[in-house]
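Posted in: Structural Biology > Protein-Ligand Complexes

Title: Requesting predicted complex, adenosine-5'-diphosphate in pocket

I'd be grateful if someone could produce the 3D structure tokens for the following input. Sequence and ligand are given below.
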Amino acid sequence: MSAELDTLSLLSRRVLVVMPSPRDAERTLSLLREHGISSTVCAELDVLSRELERGAGALLLTDEIIAGEPWRQLASVLREQPPWSRVPVVLVAHEGAEQIRAWATESLRSPIVVERPVRTRTLLSVLRSALLTREDQYQIGDALSALERSKQELAEQAEALRTTDRRKDEFLATLAHELRNPLAPIQTGLDILSHARHDEAGERALGVMNRQLQHMVRLIDDLLDVSRITQGKLELKRARVTLEEVLDTAVETSRPLIERGHHALRVTVADPNVAFDADATRLAQVVSNLLNNAAKYSPAGGLIELSAQREGNQCLIEVRDDGIGIPADQLDDVFHMFSQVNRALSRSQGGMGIGLALARSLTELHGGTITGESRGLGLGSTFRVRLPVATRTERKPPVPVADAIVRHDRKRVLVVDDNHDAADMLAIMLEHADYESRQAHDGKSALAAALAWGPDIVILDIGLPDVSGYEVARQLREDPRFQKLELIALSGWGTEDDKRKAVAAGFNRHFTKPVDAGALCAALARASER
Ligand code: ADP
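-- Reply #1 --
Done. Output follows.
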């Protein structure tokens, strides 16, 4: 122990003494010293208050000194001590000094009162037990300040974890976005190839590439959704939608997986017209996630049952399979992000462990619940989604029939993308569709090309190296010659906010990468007619 700690420990174990006369003080001091009790005599209460700050094991006072302002100050210092760390006060009082005793008791809460005449043995034993009490207080104090330290450490660790978690979410969002960019030219390239004639091997290779690309797009979309949900950025596009529409879309989406597993699908819907105020795409995504899992986690030739029925103000949608089942203790876990019962098996099915977490978040965003049930391994699983149904029925406006792609005179399309491959692929697709096209790979050359060539349509990537696509759009719109120009945004980001920004910058349309060639051609055809 260092000398400093030694001194501290001695100070905190001494008795501070205030006596009415120096003679009394001297006598007390030598008595205590004789019996191995360290003490410090304070001439006045002011001095005692100062010494108390340096540390004390107990105070020894007499009733004669309990008076005036110094006493009041000392009493208030003593009262402010925390309950578990009150220095014991031994008060030597005259017999019958009831008033002083009452005052002392009230101002000090619990002094130990010893009546005169004082027997030496009594005084020594009272002081020793006061010092032991103080010793216990120090130990409790030490334990508490340990506790305090670990609380602080825990709080720091929690903050560090929160930061890491936030960075992980941001990283996932960026990763998913960056992965989308290279998919765009691949998708366009495949669309171009699919229009040409191939031998059988070529056709098969094309089919495989198309399927794998769609799978990759789905995985990336799931990743993006997860990061949007964890960052509270997922927006529902609510509208009146029927149960039938939701289930039809879900079944259509999952059909390839169900067929590949040679499973039978039985659909039983009691009331297909039950309606929801919901985001149809997102609800279908929930159901198709469950159907996909049923297909993935059942040996070939299984039976998958999709049923739905109204239960009061709710609709119960059930997906049941007779597949590999889920152990009871993991039924809750499977809804957590990245959790997989049998990692190797799930990975071999192309899973990342986010489908059910997404399904739960999407269901809860719609005010519903989702649960899983299984009688155990090998005994199949059942997932149940309960959703609030819409209270009033409303007739939906008819859905406009998709515009046909129409032939037109060769219109000029300027393609602006810093990814040369993406721009090349788009240009090839445009040539096929009988457009005249040119390319630019940054904002400045896009503006220059627009002025020099006068395109009818500009397809603009948003993330350009010099100025953003929004800026290019704004500058084009400022020029009266480009008021009628068709401006199409092509971006890896596809939130409602991104689309609003595109409209505000002057774009007519916004497409998220990888863009569906059919939808883009339809938009070009419509623009060409105007
Ligand atoms: P994944 O992409 O791995 O399928 P999910 O979040 O959709 O992720 O599912 C999490 C895990 O729950 C799966 O990896 C699988 O172990 C288990 N699971 C989900 N649905 C079923 C099911 N119908 N039958 C058996 N296991 C299932």
